[in-house]
């Protein structure tokens, strides 16, 4: 199993460090610690609200000589409020400024959801509500065709601000459509994927198109319990298939689940706020799951999606907006 994926002469490391839900005061130190532990792939987004702090961590890691900028793969994402073509470059430049970088290795459309523009000076990151102080705040949809946003993403690549472009949270139909009109084809598809949501058809489709797939939330429910989007008893780490494999291999259940992710041909971006877990999550290439173990873990699939706009947009943002059927 390769430890990286080739993208147009560059290499996307198979295991990245995800910055979602990392508190601002902890971000810089954790990014530095991640690079020190051996991570060369950082997965960020404007919406995470911690890109300035992530930039401080990158700066300190580079200043300490832990690696060169060219050895780091830094991903960020275009937020929903910046889908109009005239806002795409400004959003990217804001992210670059916050991260303290001259270019991004990868820039992704975060969701196939276009929201009305919120000025950078008014609120940043703008999150989901158009006006959080309204009497009944809601998402305000802006009817921007995705092909217009993609054309602006292509311009970013041509300008050299980003080296690679791709999409997050697209389904099969949107992917087919994108491949039909894209002049610069998407190079990465990032989607939720774990043993309870194996996404086999979508991953196969993307790979057939030559698109590398990155799985977010590769450990499943763990990131969502604190948000009341998952129950504690939904942890895949407690399943027999995972625990039996862990016992045979002398590895932790988390390592087994993460190895399942990379062994099936996807990059993964586990997130941890605990420094002791950094090396554990990265140590996935000195063992291999058997075909039977891979099959048993894949059989856990129940199409359980934790990050579902059809659920959280209505519950948290007073707007029903499904993007998956």
Automatic annotation (TrEMBL):
Binding residue positions for substrate: 110
Residues of the signal peptide: none
Domain named NADP-dependent oxidoreductase: residues: 16-301
SUPFAM superfamilies in alphabetical order: NAD(P)-linked oxidoreductase
Keyword rRNA-binding: no
Keywords: Oxidoreductase
UniProt feature coiled coil, ranges: none
Stored InterPro entries: AKR, Aldo/ket_reductase_CS, NAD(P)_OxRdtase_dom_sf, NADP_OxRdtase_dom
Protein origin, superkingdom: Bacteria
A GO term, aspect molecular function: oxidoreductase activity, acting on the CH-OH group of donors, NAD or NADP as acceptor
PROSITE patterns registered for this protein in UniProt: ALDOKETO_REDUCTASE_1 (PS00798), ALDOKETO_REDUCTASE_2 (PS00062)
Residues of the active site: 48 (proton donor)
Site for Lowers pKa of active site Tyr, residues: 77
Pfam families noted in UniProt: Aldo_ket_red (PF00248)
Gene3D superfamilies in the record: NADP-dependent oxidoreductase domain
Catalytic activity: hydroxyacetone + NADP(+) = methylglyoxal + NADPH + H(+)
Family: Belongs to the aldo/keto reductase family.
Stated name of the protein: Aldo/keto reductase
Organism, as annotated: OM182 bacterium
Upper classification of the organism: Bacteria, Pseudomonadati, Pseudomonadota, Gammaproteobacteria, OMG group
